[in-house]
Automatic annotation (TrEMBL):
Its main location: membrane. It comes from Christiangramia sediminicola. Pfam families: PHO4. Belongs to the inorganic phosphate transporter (PiT) (TC 2.A.20) family. This is Phosphate transporter. The lineage of its organism: Bacteria, Pseudomonadati, Bacteroidota, Flavobacteriia, Flavobacteriales. Keywords: Membrane, Phosphate transport, Transmembrane, Transmembrane helix, Transport.
Length: 747
């Protein structure tokens, strides 16, 4: 029987390594986003700075492991066999939950997940013990849970959300009021003071939070606690002088140093504080096993009161953990997906919006707009003009035609993000208040975005919807962590060894599936074969660039159209579903080009404005093509998915003829645009009437068949719909050819 606990311990060690990987992948956004979003320093430098912070924070990690040992439950109320079940359920749940969020690219809190997993597992185990006891009732469950500490942790975590958002918005608004968006001019005069304030706050944060619990902290903690005003004052003078000298000697902005040190400080604090979320449970399990093995008692009778004792983390384990975290930071692609979500929500300029608006986001934006308008009406006109002047954005932010390549926000905002997050975490630490570093850094970033008017009328509903989705995900984290850990605890209690083996296999399978799914999404995103935004500033260049997009759409349309009719004839639901996805992707790419029209027109030379009319017309015809394909694929999939009768043989034969003629046409068009033989377009346009008449004849034949032979209304309706929509598709293609031919000849 002892072997099963040894095997469980080995499994927990393996799970700890996996948890470090998925945990860092999610929490990397906490310290990377400000530096990446502002592009103040190179990506390689950011990674080196963050890696050093992570490694030192892990190696000098404090005794934060007590949360896993006694912070949520009363260890003395459980026996060794029960505590091992709790720990196993918690670790399996934690890995799957965090990996799920990583795959979605959503930031969540590793602190909240581990707290609620421990709580859920402990509650279920307590229920099992109470139900098996003749003397205990449900009221006795409270004796198993450290309710005071758990309530303090949970309330502190969620309270930090409101505080971080509010403070971040206020500080950013005041900073922008002082520096405006053209901060380069004012930073020369006030940069030393601003740098002194930021670096003092970040430095204080590093000592108070990042290095708390290190072997050296005891030497100066009394000074920091009793003489903090003196420490802050001396630090401010030192950093202000340093900032002034840096700008004078190197002729560079001090904000670069602020962002670099801030990134280091948050990375240091993250690994020192959140390491418990990844290895705290396995380490507690190891100490439990060690004490039980030495006791000689039965696993079902050995009390885990030993977990009440404070045990420092083993240096070698901290060293290994730090190494794994650094490697994950460098090689995890999921970490970058999560980072993109927060940067996208806080982006100052225009960009692709990841989230769709919902009823709540629309209501929030509408209410906020009315409130803002009301405040403006009661504000003196002089004050309004002064504030508006500070918040005027330079043209390159408003009309940049390469918004995705620009920094998501400037260095002022990045500095405020890092400074405010550091200060809030420092204050909470000094008062021993628990919080989630993820929640604090994310909400500070959202608050500064709001204050910076990054959420304008063009993007507010999308950004607010994104924030609400992320916050909703946090509540989902708490609920699902509690529920899933509790369920797994009960399953392991019933099934013991076999249940653990099955759950581990299921976990591995889910992790592999999520990895493949994320890899495929990343590959699709990196695929450069989609439609391209026009970057040319001349009419001739626009026409030639459009040829590539036309060739791309025609080629894909040919495949989609043929696959739909093949799937329909063979009742192949899988092929029809794949065609639907292909159409959705094509429509999304065309819509993205249409969203780019504003920037496209802004970038044109005065002599090339007529090229915009051609570009807009071409996009209109491409949209018509996509909409026809969408209708055809949707109707075909619906017919097969509803298990209606398959089309009759003569109907399939007619559709095959249509497919063959259309495929031949699309292949010729694709060749013309690929090889740039535009003089042959006239020959294509000349076949328009013949192709359309062919479809009209088939419609007439079906009318005759319907009156004498057909007995299926669904088949007849589908067949007519397909032919009529194919006719519209051909019209759109021919109109596209005529427009291109006409414009090409004018150049």
């Amino acid at each position: 029987m002892e072997n099963i606990y040894l095997l469980m311990l080995v499994a927990l060690v393996v799970l700890a390594i996996a948890d470090l990987v998925v945990g860092v992948s999610n929490d990397a956004v906490n310290f990377l986003n400000s530096a990446i979003g502002s592009k103040a320093i190179s990506f390689k430098t950011i990674m080196i700075v963050a890696s050093l912070g992570i490694f030192f924070g892990a190696v000098f990690s404090s005794g934060m492991m007590e949360v896993a040992r006694k912070g949520i439950f009363m260890p003395g109320q459980f026996y060794f066999d029960e505590i091992m079940i709790i720990f196993m359920a918690v670790m399996i749940t934690d890995i799957l939950l965090l990996d799920f969020f990583n795959t979605l690219g959503m930031p969540t809190s590793t602190t909240v997940s581990i707290v609620f997993e421990l709580l859920g597992a402990a509650v279920v185990m307590a229920l099992i013990k109470v139900s098996a006891s003749d003397s205990q009732t449900l009221a006795d469950i409270a004796s198993y849970i450290n309710t005071d500490k758990a309530t303090e942790i949970i309330s502190g975590i969620f309270l930090s959300v409101v505080i971080a958002f509010t403070i971040g918005a206020l500080v950013q608004w005041l900073s922008r009021l002082v520096f405006s968006f053209e901060y380069e001019k004012k930073i020369k005069n006030f940069g030393a003071i601003f740098g002194g304030v930021c670096l003092t706050a970040i430095g204080y944060f590093i000592f108070f939070k990042g290095l708390k619990g290190t072997p050296y902290y005891d030497n100066f903690k009394d000074v920091l606690a009793s003489q903090w005003l003196t420490v802050v004052g001396v630090s401010f003078v030192f950093w202000t002088l340093f900032s002034w000298l840096f700008m004078k000697i190197f002729k560079r902005s001090i904000l670069i140093i602020v962002i670099a040190i801030g990134t280091f400080g948050l990375a240091l604090a993250f690994s020192g504080n959140d390491l418990v979320n990844f290895i705290g449970v396995p380490m507690a399990a190891y100490h439990s096993y060690e004490a039980w093995a030495a006791s000689g008692q039965a696993a079902s009778s050995f009390s885990m009161e030993v977990l009440r004792e404070k045990v420092p983390a083993e240096p070698i384990l901290l060293f290994i953990s730090g190494g794994i975290m650094v490697l994950t930071l460098w090689f995890s692609k999921k970490a970058r997906s999560v980072a993109e979500t927060e940067i996208g929500l806080s982006r100052q300029g225009h960009g692709t919006e990841k989230f769709n608006p919902n009823i709540l986001s629309r209501a929030v934006v509408a209410g906020s707009t009315k409130l803002a308008d009301g405040l403006k009406n009661i504000m003196p006109s002089g004050t309004k003009r002064a504030i508006s002047k500070s918040f005027e954005k330079p043209d390159e932010i408003l009309i940049g035609d390469k918004a995705e390549e620009q920094p998501a926000f400037d260095m002022i905002r990045a500095s405020i993000n890092l400074t405010v997050a550091g200060v809030l975490i420092s204050i909470a630490t000094s008062y021993k208040l628990p919080l989630s570093t993820t929640y604090v850094t994310f909400m500070v970033a959202m608050g500064t975005s709001l204050a910076d008017k990054a959420w304008g009328r063009e993007s507010a509903v999308y950004r607010v919807a994104g924030v609400l989705n992320v916050i909703g995900g946090w509540f989902f984290t708490a609920f699902s962590a509690f529920t899933a850990a509790g369920i797994l605890t009960y399953i392991i209690f019933l099934g013991k060894g076999p249940a653990i083996a099955i759950l581990l296999l299921v976990a591995i399978g889910l992790l592999v599936r999520n990895y493949i799914s994320h890899k495929n999404k990343t590959r699709e995103k990196a695929d450069k074969s989609g439609l391209k935004k026009s970057e040319s500033k001349t009419v001739q260049g626009i026409i030639l660039e459009s040829a590539d997009n036309i060739s791309n759409v025609v080629s894909r349309s040919n495949k989609i159209f043929s696959d739909v009719f093949t799937g329909l004839s063979k009742q192949d639901k899988k092929k029809l579903k794949k065609s639907k996805k292909g159409v959705d992707k094509l429509e999304a790419e065309i819509e993205d080009l249409r969203d780019h029209i504003f920037f496209f027109i802004k970038s044109l030379d005065e002599t090339s404005v007529r090229g915009s009319s051609f570009y807009i017309t071409i996009l209109g015809y491409l949209t018509d093509i996509a909409q026809s394909l969408e209708y055809i694929s949707k109707k075909s999939y619906k017919h097969v998915n509803n298990n209606h009768k398959p089309l009759r043989y003569n109907q399939i034969t007619d559709l095959k003829e249509v497919d063959d003629s259309l495929s031949d046409l699309l292949r010729k068009i694709d060749r013309i645009f690929t090889e740039r033989k535009f003089e042959e377009i006239s020959g294509i346009v000349a076949t328009k009437d013949e192709l359309l008449n062919n479809i009209s004849e088939k419609i007439e034949k079906q009318i005759s068949r319907t009156r004498t032979e057909e007995s299926s209304p669904k088949n007849t309706t589908l067949y007519f719909n397909l032919l009529v929509e194919t006719k519209d598709l051909m019209n759109a293609i021919m109109n596209l050819m005529e427009e291109y031919n006409s414009s090409y000849r004018k150049v």
